[in-house]
Structures are given as structure tokens and as C-alpha cells.
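quick one, two chains, predict together pls
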Amino acid sequence: MPILEHFENEHSSDQLQRLNEALQSGMFMQVRMMLNELPAADVAHFLESTPPKERNILWRLINTEREGQVLQFLDDEIRNEYAANMEPAELAAATRHLEVDDQADILGDLPDKIVKEVLASMRVQDRHRVEHALSYPEDTAGGLMNTDLVTVRPLVTIEVVLRYLRMKGELPVATDCIYVVDSEDKFIGSVSLSTLITSQPDETVEQVLEKDIHPIPVDQPDDEVARVFERRDLISAPVIGKDGELLGRITIDDVVDVIIEDADHSLMSMAGLDENDDTFAPVVTSAKRRAVWLGINLITVMVAASVIGVFEETIAAVTALAILQPIVPSMGGIAGTQTLTLVIRGMSVGHISDNNFRWLMMKELGVSVLNGLLWSLVVGMSVFLWFHFVQHSEHATYLGITIAGAMVINLIAGATFGAILPVMMTKMDIDPALSGGVVLTTVTDMVGFFAFLGLATVFFL
Amino acid sequence: MPILEHFENEHSSDQLQRLNEALQSGMFMQVRMMLNELPAADVAHFLESTPPKERNILWRLINTEREGQVLQFLDDEIRNEYAANMEPAELAAATRHLEVDDQADILGDLPDKIVKEVLASMRVQDRHRVEHALSYPEDTAGGLMNTDLVTVRPLVTIEVVLRYLRMKGELPVATDCIYVVDSEDKFIGSVSLSTLITSQPDETVEQVLEKDIHPIPVDQPDDEVARVFERRDLISAPVIGKDGELLGRITIDDVVDVIIEDADHSLMSMAGLDENDDTFAPVVTSAKRRAVWLGINLITVMVAASVIGVFEETIAAVTALAILQPIVPSMGGIAGTQTLTLVIRGMSVGHISDNNFRWLMMKELGVSVLNGLLWSLVVGMSVFLWFHFVQHSEHATYLGITIAGAMVINLIAGATFGAILPVMMTKMDIDPALSGGVVLTTVTDMVGFFAFLGLATVFFL
């Protein structure tokens, strides 16, 4: 994405409001005018915020030459839909002026057949650049990098470099430094634009270059790239191949997109949703997607319910158990989710390793034991008091003891599984953010029912 | 934070591993040497990943002159602990070389008394700058901005500007452009370093300046600043006061911190955790913090259980109801959480407004009706078949009908509340990410138990 595209309008939310009113009242000419005055990022945002029917009208009102700009800012699902419906030649023309990593991004998600046709209708040089970009997996440094960079040799003087740059007339967007390479194109170091400006003209590049910059390997996963940028406060970084040859550069704006997407992924996948799905997708599309998650949950809750089935006789003897039955599983699930979330986040920021995992697990167990004792006392007493003084039940004492004991057991189970699950799942290559919660609550439900009704059976049968 | 501090070591994770081994085997001299060779960000990360006892040893091994650097990278909770324990003069000395926004960040969280003492031991000029930075709320543009910037007047030539910059010898870190102001210091526009380099020396600043840059008001909330940076792919932006006077600039590295903190907040607060808490906090500290969340949950689950209590007679008549009882609330909770998450995220990225909320709610209802019909059919049939053919229960037909009917009702309730809750809570100034899930599942539990046991009462009593 271009870094220096600044905003043409200060009050964009007012504009969006007026745009919406014009759309509602069917003044399409006006909508078209307003749409094409807005920055492309705002148009994309407006499309994303509009239900499908109106969205299709809006899309047709956008000037052809801006379609590529808008496409690059759209969420994956919507973008793929529109891109796949464009004529290959039209798509090639629309994306011609984008940066090569953004072109590759748009094409990368489309069916192979369309990609081939689009590539075929590009100019030869463009096609080679895009094909090259497409050859790197999207979620690696190679997929993030741009190939337009300025390189110089170490022995030229600053004066020569400045003259050369002035002759070029324009630098690639978001250029904050130029790169120094040897005769075999191997990366040596970089010189920031501010160094160029503040150095003496007769100094050589070699005298002022920054060597302490460690380039990013082209196959590094994008989340690791993001962590390096974050930790080092980088604005751009060079990307190198296996033999140290300079291949391109990654700029912070694309890294910010990775960071936001990863965060979105954690949040959405906890509810079994996909961060790339369209919020305003049609009912049937959404219903189909959500059905799977509900189905998985149905299976897990039926498994948990089957544990209750084992103790049907006990419940028949003391119906009060059915009333108290949700409390223990629920508390175990909450305590376990806290540990699970803490560990998943600790792993994702790199705080948790083999060195400290045992310590952390012992700590989480300790927390659960303390809270287990505290809340089992509270709940045990409340249950006793209620059933003794209000319900005048003969079972009050045992009901209190049962629920208190089961609570301690389940809170400990929650902490243990909450800590172990993400580690186990990561080793098995399963995303703990996606399924950790479901597995955990299935476990705490089962342990909760079993501990509560099992203890009750000991006391009452 | 400094933007151009690049990483001094490629294999930092190997280094951390060796550091850990040295620490475990008590070779403190070696640990000290290794610690002081690592970049400050890595030292901070290592401290964050270490349990409290070893962490305190490590902190004492860090060279005094690096303490400020390390402090600025530490998580809030740990940083506050160490900063508050330093002598005021020592803290003033340690933070002297930091950027003013980072100094203000460190001081801002400390008790007023300490801040006063630290300020008193600073040099006058430094003190004024920090006091000025502290006067802006931390979570606004003013709290994010730096005041070290290069300004020029519109009528000077590029040649003069370049000569002036060369004389300065060094530009503030992360300078990607210089700012143009009038005689009253009001912001006019900016000139990027690449424009400076590629323009003709005899052109004036006025001829090449970029006017399309809309500066950020000093009181804009930091999450809005982050959205502007993200949407416009900015690297830096000027900050202005009420009368258009240039006050400072915000750089992308500080914005990335805001983005990451916001994402962390959403994720952690869903489990009732605080993103600033130390993962390796002592057991008692953590237990106290978590106790509140467990207590809130205990109250909500007891309220839900009281709904079951209303139907004790029905359960006494048909014990099978106790077994099936968790299924309907669970499914409603899952469906509701999906809608809730979708709406919370849609609101936070700005996709949802008054214009499209009705549409979205109708869509979510539609999704729940479809999935309600599908899964109530599945669960109704399963329950009928199981109780009829396996348990030979006379109640099989009605149990199937009851659970199917209750499921449809509860899925609709889940979608309705999942959509309305975040809107309502935001209007009441409550963070829906923090408490939305708890309120929602309390509702779906209650509706679930009421619908299931209520329908059962109609059929069986």
C-alpha cells in the first residue's frame, strides 16, 4: 500500500453520512460524484459498511480507473468477489498502478485460471514482477516485500548519490533509506535519508553507512517479521535471499496490516468466526458458516450431558442437585478460560518458554487453589444456609459440602487444562485460539458434573 | 521510542536461551555481561518472561546507564514497580536520554509525590519539556506526540534548507519530513525528506510543499489516531493545537504500540483479565485480581440456577430433564457470542452505524432462525430416538419437541441480545468487550432454562 497517501478530507465521517443519505434517497449521480472525491481507503471502508445490495450499486458507481485503488483496501472476502467478477484485462488495467506486493495480494486469492488470464493481459515487464511476487507465500517476508528500492555501491560519494537521486526525480513511496550492495548484489548496509542530508558531500557511502541492520530472510513468517518490527521500532527493513542477496524491502504499513489481522484473528476465532468474513454477508452464507461451530458445540455439550445421565438415579433421589448442577461447571470454565487466555497470549508475545512454563503452571494452580478455597467456602455456606433455613431440606449440610468440594476440584482442573492445552495444541499444530476454548469447557463441564454428582452419589445413595 | 534502533543481534532467541542457562547456574558475572550486550528491547522482553525472584536479580545486574532504556520497553506493571523503587535522582538520570513522550509515559503512571521529586532533580529545560508532555492525557494525540521536530518557513529555498540541516548535523529520530509553519508557528504543510533530496536547489519550500496533509488535533483520542494512521498508511503526522499552531508530531512506532495494546485489551478483557498485568505476577496478587471475575460469574450462574429452582417439581416428575438441561443454554450462549463478537468488532473498526444496524440485526436474526431450525431438528430427533429406542421412555416424543422448541427460542434470544447489548452498553459507557459476554450468557442461560423447563412443564405437569 502507498504510505504517503494523505487524507484529502478532514471530516470523512460527515461525508460518509451525507453519502449514505444520498444513497438512501436514490440520488445516484450525486453518490457517484461524492464517491469519486473520497480517498480510496474511505471508499473501501464505506463499501465494507454497506449491505450487499446497496454495495453492488456503489461498486458500479466507482470510476473504472479507481477500482484497483479501492480493491487493495477492501477486506479479502469482498475483494475476491469483485475481482473475480471483473474481466481479466479490466483487472490487469485496474491494478497496474499498484505496488507489486499489493497486486500479488489481490491476485493471490483468486482462482488460478483467472490469475493466468490477468497475467497474460499485462505488459511483459509487469507480468514478470508480479509472477515473481506471487512465487513467495503470502504469509512470509517474501509476500510482504516490495521490490522497488534504491541501491548504491559503497565507494561512491554522498555528492554523487544525491545527484543521482535528484536525476531520478522521484523515490519509491515510503523510502526512508537507500541500500548499499556489493558487486554481486549482496546486502552490505543502508544509509538513511537523514544521514544523506546531514553528511558532508565528499564522504563516501562506506563512511556513513549503517552496518548494524540485520536483514530479514525472505522465508521468515509474517508474524515473526511483525514482532521484529515491533520490538525494534523499525519503519522499513531489507529482505535478503539465502546467499545474502538483496531482494526487496518491507515497510511498516504492510506490517501494521499483519498486526491488525493477527489480532482480529485471535478475537474472532475465539467465537468460531473468520476475520476475513464480510460482516454484511447474506443470511444463508453466514448461517452455513456458523452452523459448523454450533454443531461442534452441540456434540461437546451432549458429551457433557451424558456425564449427568450416569447419575440419573442420584438426581431422582435429590432433585435439588439439578438446580445446583450448572454452578460448578460454570466456575471451572471461567477459571480455566482465564488461564487459557493468559497462556495463549503469553505464547503469542513470546513470554512463555520451556524455561518458565513449569513456574507459570504452578502459579496458575496456586491461584486456582486459593480462589477454589475462597469461593467454595462462599458457595458451600450459601447453599447450606438456603437449603437449611429457607427450604428446610434435610440434605442442606451434604449439599453444601458436595458443591464446595466439587468446586475446588473443578477450579484446579480448569487451571491445569487451561495451562496445558495451548502448549499441547501448538505442538500438534492446532491453533489454540480457535479451538482451545471449546475443548477446555468440554473438559471443565465433564469434570464439573462428574465431581459434583459423583460426590453427591457418595453422600446420598 | 527510538525508531531507528536496529537489532544488534540476529539470533536473539539463542542468546536468550544461553542467558537463561547462565542465570539458572548462578553465573551472574556472565549474565551481567550478556545482559548488557543485548538490545534494551530484548532485555525488557527477557525480564517480562522471568518469574519475579530471578527478575529482581536480573534487574540489579543491568548497568545503571541502561536502566532508562530498558524501563521504556517494559510492560506497565513491571515498569511501575521498578521505577517507583528507584531514587528520584537516579530515575531522572536514567530517563534523561529518552524521548520526551517516553519520559512522560514512565512518569505518568507513578504516584504524584515521586513524579514531583523526579522533576525537581531534572535540569530546568528538561523539566519544562516533560511537564509540558505530562499536561496532555496519556491516551490522546498529545500524550503520543514528540516535540522534537524541524520547522522551516515557506519562502526559503531548498538549498538553504539543505545547508541548514547539514549544519544541524543530526535530525531527530524517525524524521521522515520537515514541517512548514508561518510566522505565528501555524502549520502550513510538510516536505518529505525524499522531496527535499529530489527537488531542484533553487526551488522554494512553498513550491514543493505538500498541503494535503491534515494535521491531528492534540486532543484526539489515541484509538482514533491509530485508525487514521492505519487507514492513510501514515508514518508520521503533525499535531496541532486549537488555533492551528504546530505542537509536535506522532510517529508510527508509538501508534503500533497503541494498536497492539487495544488488541490485547479486547482479547484479555473477554476473560476478565487486564492486558497490563504481569503474566508472572505472584500467586496472591493474581488470585486477588481473578477472584472478582469469579465472584461476578458466581452471582450470574446462581441467578440462572434460580430459574431451574422454579421448575423443581417438573424435574422431580421427569428426571431426564436434568440430563438434557445444559444443552439449550449452551447453544444459545454460543450463537449469541458469535453475534456479540461480530458486532463488537464491527463497531470497533467503524463498520456499524445507525444506517446499517437494523439490517445487520435482521440478518443476525435470520441466521439464528435458520440455524435454530436446523439444529433443533437434529437435537429433537436425536433425543426422541435415544429416549424411545434406548431408554424406552414414555416421554420420548415430548422430550424431543420440548428441546427443539426451546432451542429455536434461545438461539433467537442469543442473536437479539448479542446484537443489542454492545450498542446499549456503549451508549451507557460500559466496555462491551469486558462485560458483554457475561451479561449475554446470563441472559441465554436464563432464557434457555426457562424455555426448556417451561415448555416441559406445559407438557408433563
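Confidence is low (pLDDT under 50) at residues 1-11 of chain B.
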